[in-house]
């Protein structure tokens, strides 16, 4: 029996365990990336580990999230990250250089290598044949220190592509079609490989759009073969030497196979408030729109931007629409300017934003009250735009551009002939905003700069053998990390200040939660299915930790968030019988006894004090995760065990 691409890469990087389903494996990590919304905590964690230099082949710190500087906080974080990166051997991508996933794809991603990043859309690099996985900042810090990255053995899914995309149908529509098929929970615990004859028709930027949105499926990673398209992209970036061919074996076996005929697809949109709420653009043609946003790590490549410029050339956006465009990198921005496409965008009435995440994380350009915004982004969660009652639709750049022209969600096929766009065979290379670290000899003289907003990394405490916890909050299904720890211009400046940030915890769900949790001291949160989906932000674990949450009980967890809870020293547990969820309510008291023995056995029974009813719970913890919880979190465990 042959191997899939992912299995080949897992075996090549395996440090512990084997690929037996249900087991835990430890992987050698070649590269890491961080961004500034999660990076400060990752580097505070790295400092806590106690090494003097990173031990990866390449680690890069990007500044792309917190770029609105309305006070000193974001600027101070950037200064801290730049200084710690220089000292510890990490490359630093300056503000304005671009979005981490776009820049990493252009300049650093390599087929056949492993990458983990403190951002859930790190799998974008799978578009170039890299095994790229989103992770919490503490896991990234351990990997930078030379430690292994641990994951459960993933299942292998194959999406078999046939045919060729029709005019006006895009890679974004492929992603939305798979979300329609699998839903936001359908990829949990899997690596999605893309194969079939249709793969050859997709360029690396198109593939990266698809792997980027694998995160919305809950997948551990998504990966494409490394082939002639990969070689062409690397050659255009002046990195032909990084090319390695990668294919699955002909007799590789997959746990699930999904067939998609590209020629049958049509322009799609994801409706509020979930990426899997799919409809055709044609079906939604009566929806009036007040805002359109084009960009983000999903759709900000040169190819995307040139296509949008061609659609808008010589036309003007509707009077009712405000249009923003965010190029993905300085490379893209400069090439748009050099070829004249930038002028076409500006003339259309678009507002050009900097090369950053911006509106995707609610960092500026929020919609009007009750507004409808069409975005080429990857997430449409309630409140994420910065406007709580806004309605966000996700669409391709082509659909978004057509919508900006008409003021209504528009099937771009109604615009007529598909504009011809030529992407240069050679890209402009300017790495002046990528700052190398100090040499090992110079590093000792580098001073780390800490502003007053940068607080120490919060510390967990060893898991007690007995806990009596009131339920401080009960929430429903598909609670995202945006619900738990919101993003946006008001909150993101406190990413390095957990005590301050904790005051916003669960603010989208219940603004009274932080005060109530503090008053209770220790407590438990109860959730529905797919709890913690979305961003990899470990703040969604660290803020509850600071507020005294010691246990989270849910119907099921998203992979990264469950790992982040464990790393923070919070015990995740799932209902053996999902119907027991209905028996619990806010204010109930749960007693957990003999926890140490119970978690070793994988079975925990809690007693509901109000009815004296036992409730059976479980969670498949590895031996290492048990040791992490008993130590009081990953940092404490790492100090005890060493990286």
Q: Could you outline the blueprint of secondary structure elements for this entry?
A:
Layout lengths: L4 H8 L1 E3 L7 E4 L3 E5 H14 L8 E5 L9 H17 L2 E3 L6 H8 L6 E4 L13 E4 L2 H8 L4 E4 L2 E8 L8 H12 L7 E6 L8 H9 L8 E3 L4 H9 L19 E6 L6 E3 L7 E3 L10 E4 L7 H11 L9 E4 L4 H10 L1 H7 L3 E2 L19 E4 L15 E4 L2 H10 L27 E2 L4 H4 L23 E8 L6 H4 L13 H4 L11 H8 L2 E5 L11 H8 L2 E6 L4 H10 L2 E5 L13 E4 L2 H7 L1 E6 L4 E6 L4 H9 L2 H8 L2
Parallel strand pairs: 3-4, 3-6, 4-5, 6-7, 9-10, 9-12, 10-11, 15-16, 15-18, 16-17, 18-19, 21-22, 22-23, 23-24
Antiparallel strand pairs: 1-2, 2-8, 5-20, 13-14, 21-25, 24-27, 25-26, 26-27
Helix pairs in contact: 2-3, 2-5, 6-7, 9-11, 9-12, 17-18, 20-21
Description of the molecule:
A seven-stranded mixed β-barrel has the order 21-22-23-24-27-26-25, surrounded by four helices. A six-stranded mixed beta sheet has the order 7-6-3-4-5-20, covered by helices on one side. Helix 2 (36-49) packs across helix 5 (137-144). The relative contact order is 0.13. The protein is built from 21 helices and 27 strands. The protein has 643 residues and is of the alpha/beta class.
Strand content: 15-25%
Q: What spatial form do the alpha-carbon principal axes imply?
A: globular
Termini distance? Answer: 35 Å
Q: Looking across the biggest beta sheet, what order are the strands in?
A: 21-22-23-24-27-26-25
Output the radius of gyration. Answer: 23 Å
Contiguous runs where pLDDT drops below 50 for at least 5 residues:
none
What structural class do the secondary elements suggest? alpha/beta
Instruction: Please give the count of helices.
Output: 21
Biggest beta sheet summary:
7 strands, mixed, barrel
Instruction: State the total count of DSSP E strands.
Output: 27
Mean pLDDT: 96
Q: Percent helix among the residues? A: 25-40%
């Amino acid at each position: 029996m042959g191997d899939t691409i992912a299995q080949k890469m897992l075996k090549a990087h395996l440090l512990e365990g084997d690929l037996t389903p249900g087991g835990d494996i430890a992987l050698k990590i070649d590269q890491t990336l961080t961004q500034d919304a999660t990076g400060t905590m990752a580097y505070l964690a790295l400092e806590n580990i106690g090494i003097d230099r990173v031990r990866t082949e390449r680690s890069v710190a990007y500044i792309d999230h917190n770029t609105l500087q309305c006070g000193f906080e974001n600027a101070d974080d950037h200064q801290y990250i730049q200084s710690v990166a220089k000292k510890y051997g990490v490359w630093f991508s300056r503000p304005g250089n671009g979005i981490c996933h776009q820049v990493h794809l252009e300049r650093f991603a390599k087929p056949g290598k492993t990458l983990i990043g403190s951002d859930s859309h790190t799998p974008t690099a799978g578009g170039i044949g890299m095994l790229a996985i989103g992770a919490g900042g503490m896991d990234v810090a351990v990997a930078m220190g030379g430690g292994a990255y641990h994951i459960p053995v993933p299942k292998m899914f194959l999406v078999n592509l046939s045919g060729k995309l029709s005019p006006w149908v895009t890679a974004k529509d492929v992603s939305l079609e798979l979300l329609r098929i699998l839903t936001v929970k359908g990829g949990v615990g899997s690596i999605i490989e893309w194969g079939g004859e249709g793969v050859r028709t997709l360029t690396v930027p198109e593939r990266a759009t698809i792997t980027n949105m694998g995160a919305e499926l809950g997948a551990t990673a998504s990966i494409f073969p490394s082939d002639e398209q990969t070689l062409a992209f690397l050659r255009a970036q002046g990195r032909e030497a990084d090319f390695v061919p990668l294919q699955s074996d002909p007799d590789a076996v997959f746990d699930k196979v999904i067939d998609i005929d590209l020629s049958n697809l049509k322009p799609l949109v994801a409706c509020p408030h979930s990426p899997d709420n799919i409809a055709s653009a044609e079906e939604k043609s009566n929806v009036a729109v007040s805002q359109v946003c084009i960009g983000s790590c999903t759709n900000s490549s040169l190819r995307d931007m040139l296509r949008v410029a061609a659609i808008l050339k010589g036309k003007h956006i509707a009077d009712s629409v405000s249009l923003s465009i965010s190029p993905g990198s300085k490379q893209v921005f400069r090439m748009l300017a050099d070829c004249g496409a930038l002028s076409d965008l500006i003339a259309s009435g678009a507002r050009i934003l900097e090369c950053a995440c911006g509106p995707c994380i609610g960092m500026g350009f929020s919609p009007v009250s009750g507004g409808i915004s069409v975005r080429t982004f990857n997430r449409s969660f309630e409140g994420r735009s910065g406007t709580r009652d806004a309605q966000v639709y996700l669409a391709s750049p082509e659909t978004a551009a057509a919508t900006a022209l008409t003021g209504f969600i528009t099937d771009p096929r109604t615009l007529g002939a598909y504009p011809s766009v030529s992407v240069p065979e050679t890209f402009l290379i300017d790495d002046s905003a990528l700052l190398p670290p100090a040499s090992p000899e110079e590093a000792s003289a580098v001073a780390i700069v800490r502003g007053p907003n940068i607080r120490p990394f919060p510390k967990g405490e060893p898991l007690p053998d007995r806990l009596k916890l009131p339920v401080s909050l009960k929430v429903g299904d598909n609670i995202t990390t945006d619900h738990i720890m919101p993003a946006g211009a008001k909150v993101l400046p406190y990413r390095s200040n957990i005590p301050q940030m904790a005051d916003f915890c669960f603010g989208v769900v219940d603004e009274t939660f932080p005060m109530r949790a503090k008053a209770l001291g220790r407590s438990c949160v109860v959730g529905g299915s797919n709890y913690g989906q979305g961003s990899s932000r470990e703040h969604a674990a660290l803020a509850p930790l600071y507020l005294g949450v010691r246990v989270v009980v849910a119907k099921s967890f998203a992979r990264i968030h469950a790992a982040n809870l464990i790393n923070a020293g919070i015990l995740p547990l799932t209902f053996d019988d999902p119907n027991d969820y209905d028996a619990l309510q806010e204010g109930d008291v749960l007693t957990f006894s003999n926890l140490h023995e119970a978690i070793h056995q994988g079975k925990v029974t809690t007693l509901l004090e109000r009815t004296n009813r036992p409730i059976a719970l479980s969670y498949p913890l590895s031996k290492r995760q048990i040791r992490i919880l008993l130590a009081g979190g990953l940092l404490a465990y790492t100090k005890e065990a060493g990286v």
